[in-house]
Amino acid sequence: MSEKDPAAGPARLPLAGLRILELGHYIAAPFATRLLADLGAEVIKVEPPEGDPVRGWGSEVGGHAVWFSVHGRNKLSVTLNLKDAGDKAKLRRLVARSDALVENFRPGQLERYGLGPAELHAVNPRLVIARISGYGQDGPYRDKPAFGAIGEAMGGLRHLTANPGQTTLPPPRCGVSISDDLAGMYAAMALVAGCWQVKGDPAARGRIIDVDLVGSVFSLMEGMLPEYGLFGWVRQPQGAAIKTAAPTNTYPCADGKWLCIAGNSDLIFRRLMAAIGRPEAAAEPRFATNALRCENVAELDAMIAAWTRTLPAAEAEAVLETAEVPCSRLYDMRDCAEDPHFRARQMVMPVQDPLIGEVLHPAAPFRLDGVSPREMVRWTGPAAGAHNEQVFEMLAKEEGA
Amino acid sequence: MSEKDPAAGPARLPLAGLRILELGHYIAAPFATRLLADLGAEVIKVEPPEGDPVRGWGSEVGGHAVWFSVHGRNKLSVTLNLKDAGDKAKLRRLVARSDALVENFRPGQLERYGLGPAELHAVNPRLVIARISGYGQDGPYRDKPAFGAIGEAMGGLRHLTANPGQTTLPPPRCGVSISDDLAGMYAAMALVAGCWQVKGDPAARGRIIDVDLVGSVFSLMEGMLPEYGLFGWVRQPQGAAIKTAAPTNTYPCADGKWLCIAGNSDLIFRRLMAAIGRPEAAAEPRFATNALRCENVAELDAMIAAWTRTLPAAEAEAVLETAEVPCSRLYDMRDCAEDPHFRARQMVMPVQDPLIGEVLHPAAPFRLDGVSPREMVRWTGPAAGAHNEQVFEMLAKEEGA
Q1: Nearest-CA distance from A401 to chain B in Å?
Q2: Could you tell me which CATH number the domain at B248-337 has?
Q3: What sign for the dihedral angle of Cα A133, A135, A138, A141?
Q4: Do B204 and A3 touch (CB under 8 A)?
């Protein structure tokens, strides 16, 4: 592959040649296929004639949602009405030549279309099928309505995203669709694993993969489940501090922004105290070790905050960086987009979108030797049905061949 | 594979037969390999003689960290001193028979051991190498010290995890090592993609994959980068509410817990108001549409909170569920572990750990047809070096064959 024709562009990407069908909408399944398309897979996104409703989300230019430029990139879009017999026959032709399919309908919906795993495998027994849903394909909550925040709440994350003892304001959301994203990532990972299993084994059959939003979030709970089982401990929110390390916290700055500082090791602590003009504090016995600093953390945090409040976050950050104290202000989108490291790594790159104009795209989250991040964005999110003709012409050729 | 001998246990898992070396410590690389091992890959974790320092994290039983029962499950542990020539030769023998390697040393460290990608590919040109670091393998911040919260802060997530206008308490952390987890997931996904590319192609060579914590978090920023580029908009934190949907928020309950309610569609809004004993409010013109409710959201939120404050979260949840209003209390670890859906889906399962006793394990986040979640936990996290003999005996046999 990559070695045979290094000039072939997409062919240098690892999943070049892998054929994936997306029956997705909103976030989870389309995010899974966006990652797989970034890695070089051929993704055909099957949408209803009116398009994936995510196309109506957020701001737009000329009727085109700007997020979709990224969310739909590197995909082919085909519109089909899955209630129509003729369109269903077209879908079966697509299934017959695909390696994998990703869907995120509510459990049972694909079966109601007559397109459940049994029907799909009757057409193509080697098809890997990844299904994403709020609660999974079985279990007592299977049919409960899933909504955006449910995975975050039920998977255990929202309970932790809070300041301890704070009862007036609710724990904030993550601010992004974290449970959909995680489920999409797991579905993509298991899908490629299923394709790895099938590849080169003529006897192999495609698997059915069931990923749910709740379980995807729950998978990040580290040692909390063993600790609950063994000791009955229930982890409580810790806010921005870390109980076992001090000083390590997030501090308010003069411009209303926040600065995250990790100053808990003995050496770094001394550098930090010197940098904020309190070198004498570093010498005091009650701050001599991390354990002692944890006991007296309120006093330390107050000292540090008194200093950070005098400077804008970027300036305080620059002072501490010079002093070699690990820190980072809480980047907002401007900070990210204008940061020299982001630019140097092409994590942010201008891309020409024929529907919208110049759009900033984030790089794929994996960098590959011999491929620039820019090469991994082969085209921007297309209009719904933009590839109807191209895909079915390709199909007719393949079927005739 | 799976079809040839369906009774063979691990062989039914999709990555059975894939050989992965982990040169990892703490979270990101070991999390990547835990997921790959759950999917059936053979993972050999190479640790320094004193063991991965993550083994000292959190609570323990008899000197064994309880988290490691999960974090190290399904892996073989081999201890090697990478500064020792003899051990380095052993590592090269392992490299020679592996499909992939995952590492999360600081950039340059593997090269300083004389084990950089060039050296590894000299031993095995087909090896897929996944590298995880805080800022990536190049760019101006490459050598900056990475610390846990950096990816969250610099990738744009911490800025969003906040209540708007709230300036006294810092935005809380996610409460889990989200940036390490995301990077581990991306590394695992790209690694399998690299292995898919190599499989069955005798001319193919292994790729080098570079995943960073900052970029992994940044990948979740949805439409925020295009919106910044096109309009100069900088997304600000929205707390627990959603600006464009009302009422949808998180409300305080009598037991100090929180209840997340999504009551913004017209029909559900009416059911919600009836359930909380305010059916007349649903009929008022100023709450007639979602747009009007968004304008008058403070009043609505106060009404709903006045009701939730009278009941413990679980009871309020039960009332709303009966009324078919989507809601979820913010689950803590007890809620997760005791929930009937979690139990029915085997998302929580007791596993016998020979080092610790009975430990609750979370299921793998992907369910596979024909495999029970319990079968995917083949063994619990082993002691450091537990498989030294077994692995090198296996190696000697392979080399002799």
Answers
A1: 24
A2: 3.30.1540.10
A3: negative
A4: yes
Nearest-Cα distance to chain A for B15, in Å, is 6
> Which residue, among B185, B198, B227, would best test binding to A if mutated, counting the most A CBs under 10 Å from its CB?
B185
**Residue A220 contacts residue B181 (beta carbons within 8 Å):** yes
Name the closest residue on chain B to residue A11, using Cα atoms: B197
With CB atoms and an 8 Å threshold, state whether B189 touches A35. Answer: yes
Q: What is the pLDDT of residues A327-381, one digit of tens each?
A: 999 999 999 999 999 999 999 999 999 999 999 999 999 999 999 999 999 999 9
Phi-psi region of A290 (alpha: psi -120 to 50; beta: other; left: phi over 0): alpha
The answer to whether B246 touches B303, Cβ cutoff 8 Å, is: no
- Which sequence positions of B are flagged as catalytic? 180
Per-residue pLDDT tens for A8-45?
444 589 999 999 999 999 999 999 999 999 999 999 99
Answer yes or no: do A225 and B61 touch at CB < 8 A: no
B9-220+345-400: CATH class: alpha beta
Any residues with CB less than 8 A from the CB of B109 and at least 6 apart, and which? none
Domain A248-332 grouped into CATH 3.30.1540.10: yes
Beta strands in A222-356 (DSSP E): 248-252, 258-262, 327-329, 348-353
CATH superfamily of A9-220+343-400: Crotonobetainyl-coa:carnitine coa-transferase; domain 1 (3.40.50.10540)
Q: Do residue A333 and residue B234 have CB atoms under 8 angstroms apart?
A: yes
